[in-house]
Amino acid sequence: MRSRAAPLLATPAALLLLAFNLAPALVALGLSLTDHRLAVPAIRFIGLANYAEMASDPRFWNALANTALYAAIVVPGSVGLGLVLALLIAPRRIFGGFYRAAFFLPVASTMVAMATVWEYLLHPSVGPVNQVLVLLGFTPINFLGNPATALPTLAGIGIWEISGFNMILFLAGLGAIPRDVYDAAAVDGAASAWARFRYITWPLLGPTTLFVLIVTVIRALRLFDTVALLTQGGPAYATDVILFRITTVAFGYLRIGYASALTVTFLVVIVLLAFAQARLSRRVHYA
Amino acid sequence: MRRFLLATLAGLALALPALTRPALADPIELQVHLSWGRQANTQKVVAEAFMKLHPDITVKFRPVTPDYTTGLETILRQSAVGQAPDITYQATNLMAQIVDRGLAVDLTPMLATIPDLGAAGYTDAILDLGRFDGRQYAMAFLIGSPVLYFNLDLVKRAGGDPAHLPTTWEELVPLASRIRALGPEVTGIYYSYLGDWQFQNLVSLMGSPMMDAARKQLVFDGPAGLAAMRTIGRFVTEGGMRPMARTAAQEQFASGTLGILGDVGSLVGTYEKRLAGRFAWVAVPLPGYAGIPSRGAVVGGNAAMILTRDPARQRAAWEYIRFATGPDGQTILTRENGEPPLNTLALDAAHLGHFYDENPNYRAQLVQVQAGKPWFGFPGPNSAQITEAIGSAQESVVLGRASPDAAFAEMVRKVRALLP
Questions:
Q1: What's the confidence (pLDDT) of residue B202?
Q2: What is the pLDDT of residues A101-148, one digit of tens each?
Q3: Domains in chain B and their CATH numbers?
Q4: What is the DSSP-derived secondary structure letter of residue B285?
Q5: Which residues of chain A does B244 touch, with a Cβ-Cβ cutoff of 8 Å?
Q6: B382–A contact, CB cutoff 8 A
Q7: What ipTM does the predicted assembly reach?
Q8: Inter-chain contact B399–A147, Cβ cutoff 8 Å?
Q9: pTM score
Q10: Angle of helix A111-121 versus helix A147-175 axis, rounded to 10
Q11: In this complex, is the C-beta atom of A141 within 8 Å of any C-beta atom belonging to chain B?
């Protein structure tokens, strides 16, 4: 009886997964093999031509490189900062809740409103950040207007936004480490804070760290909001990341076929990362 | 036989209301789509005023798409699956995409029912904004133009005369340069350079269209385009223009440290509220080039198109568009949104009256729009990439990566390659 009920109970979830995840992905895959343009009835099968175009499209490689650079700054930055914040806050009895809320605030706030604040803070002439720089004798920096600084600036905003979320995850991980392990270590002579971190906290946090890492990588690869709100991919394509490129191609150029090819490529990368997490987490887990 | 009789009677009974009453009297619910968020409230006021006069027609708004490109994409997608609204308001420079796909209803026969267009308040320049190959496919509703905003306090401090602002770019650039010299936090000028609208304006002020009338040959690739690009170069080297987003420049003007801002005229309303009592400012039409007859400002905005294929719905939709683009609708537009009325009757005493005497800063757009030229949309499937290429070339000058002459040559090369 039970064996017959199981597939029956799983059916609704399976159907939803099929309708909202698998089917659209398959449609995108199909469209990526065509020259479909929005509302142009004539649609032609062109095989892998879109993928060939992608390989020689400097805008695609530029977007890919920008996305990778953004992730390379944001992932270590926000995972590291999240961990440090969690380690500092976890032992605090007083003010612990306050700090937790304060650092979590960027996660809970809407990026649309925050982007306006950042644009003002970083303004090349009237922004408070540059006024402080001038006061200290530095030359002002055109953070979002200079192609050399625009992407690192967005990465800074990304770290500010994601660290609080990672901190909460690390706090949960720290809470799950049993107290008596530390007591046992103290008996064994691991007295310094560094030794406790190196031999107990860090290894036991392994599964949490891996999870945080993968989630942050995927989040960094999906960068879109600050680009759309603050730089529109500019200046001179310096912040044109993969999702912004897909949006431009699909809704600006109306080239659905080529945009689908970009989407499928992006999807493959994300799926590979998800597999990597599944494989790695088996090895990291402390049994 | 009896069955036949019954069927005939039933058919007659069904057909009777339609025969005895005019078709418009049947209640119709019009589905209207707006492409641009900042007009949503204005459009609601227009619709309410219209429904009071036409109780048989209900105007229902579909969810507003925040910007024009999303608006175009939404309509193309909905049309592909037969879910198009009856009316859509589309950007004047993107409408060609809908016309080229055969989705827009030809309004020429409906327009022909108006015996005297001039007496109805429609000028040829305004009608021209919705014309393609001699047919009327859209009726302009909300049209604006770029204007120049001057911080008069800075102008005065730089030795300029607020009562006699420069009327040519040749006079303007030295003033911008003097304003820039006032201090490290002060910028002389910012002229919005991303996209192609503002560039098209400079070309038009040089007396040139972008392409010939048949949309086959480039025209701006000569001296006019080069002069436009060199003007932008001078903004950077002499006026201290810096690369930043338009919104950042708008903020800087509001903070009182930007001397001259060249941007959309619709900021007047915002600045009237925000800058009251802080510093003296004024909005004026774009200057010209010394000794060169201008073609007029390049104006853009949105226009109403009919998409429904049903004749009765088309009639109702036309009634609504007539109202929205007529004196009453356009009076509401100017009062609520600030853009100039496109119907000349709206300027009479019964409608806007003394509005422009009381609000002189709004006049800059009125003057330019009345004599405006349509924002040109490039033909073919790559029009969005062409706009982007023009924006990128200007950006490379603003970033100091290319000389105006080199950037212009590169722009022309790219645009040629993208044209059909």
A1: 96
A2: 888 888 888 888 888 899 999 998 888 999 899 889 888 889 999 999
A3: 28-143+299-374 (3.40.190.10), 146-296+378-418 (3.40.190.10)
A4: P
A5: 123-124, 142, 144-145
A6: yes
A7: 0.77
A8: yes
A9: 0.83
A10: 130
A11: no
